[in-house]
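QUALITY CONTROL LOG
STEP: pairwise intake check
CHECKER ROLE: data steward
CRITERIA: each record must contain a sequence immediately followed by its structure tokens, with no blank fields

ENTRY 1 OF 2
RESULT FIELD BELOW
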Amino acid sequence: MHRVPNVLVERNAFLPVHHDTKRTREIDVLITSETAGIPIRIAIECKNEIEKTGIEKIDSFIGKLQDINLPTQLGVFVSKSGYSSGALRRAQDVGIKTLTLRENSISDAVFAAFQSTVYFLLAITNIQIRNNIPSGERITGGDLLFFRDKERKICGSIPDLVWEKWIRGKIPLTLGEGKLLHLKVPSGWKQIVHGQKVKIEDITVSYTINGFGMSVTGPVKQYQLVNEADQTLHKSHATARFSPPDGRLLLLQINNEDDLNNFEKRKGEIVITNRVRTPRIRWLAMYWPPSNRTLVKLNQRMLTAHQKGELLDLNSIPLEEIEGDNLSMLWEPIVKDHPLLRQIQKAKPNSSHI
């Protein structure tokens, strides 16, 4: 309750006795702050007992404060069960503040606590490229989507450029469809078609961001520190505990900002909301950049199509067929030899988002 900026809160602090440096006295909670450049220390004694705090406990605390050379006016006594009338008078005589800790379970009587997590997933829906290739010339999608370096090795792709902006937080977490992104090709990346370099004039990517939300409930307890002398509220604190859900959890798909606001806002309840940017994006039937498992499945599909004398059409493959219906697949490790991944790791070897 007392942890605020520029205030140090310590539990079970041992302070030296001012007239005997070989001895120490234990302070249950020590609060240290500074006023006008002068350090101020407040000692708090805590008792969690069934019976009311009696005068002997107050006298013991007074002795402890005297031993560490702290004025009694900077002493605070906290009891779970209140005080006897004699204890209150003794504390008031020397300026010790007497507080009572009251604990109430409010999850059922007043409101419930919800911890909500929304996972944001970007999906590429369309890619448009303007270049100097004559219209009507037959080219493959791979030639247009992938880029090569000066050694003509693949160094990245258009989905890579979207993914990099996504993980670096350069694309806002705003739900909805029909969003546009104009991409700039990095220096040294070349588009090669029929063995010739192509001049790129513009790349525009359309994308959608969907949310997938989950909520878990937990019991709520409210703690109040009440000044026993006049029954005024000194401080208040509410805490909630959440247990991890058992088994598989179904997520609610959230498609727009209005639905997101309704999901995150519950009237009269404590709501803790986490917004998580997924570490990969969706492109066609896969999460991009791909994992080893994804590439194995795609290679199998390509081999089957080749044996039938067909071309593999990624647009016709459902996402669930390659990635399954578990969102955790987005956290699979990216294939190690992915070119852009190597560049990012080289620039930021400790980057947690990859």
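ENTRY 2 OF 2
RESULT FIELD BELOW
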Amino acid sequence: MLIKVKAFPGANQEKIIKKSEDAFEVYVRAKPIGGAANQAILSALSNYFKISEKQLKIVKGFRTRNKIIYL
């Protein structure tokens, strides 16, 4: 399953907002330096879906706010 994620790194609080069945907004505190924000997004999504972080993979959008993630 592929989901679309709009990332908001450097946010004041961490939260996930479901926009539709396959679209989410993910707010994380981590800054987009050295892949820290991407890792925080994967961690937040793994907690949200209650799966292992190893089951998530960023397919597209490593350096942009709009990402596609494979579950």
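INTAKE CHECK: passed for both entries
DESCRIPTIVE NOTE, ENTRY 2: Residues 36-49 form the longest helix (14 residues).
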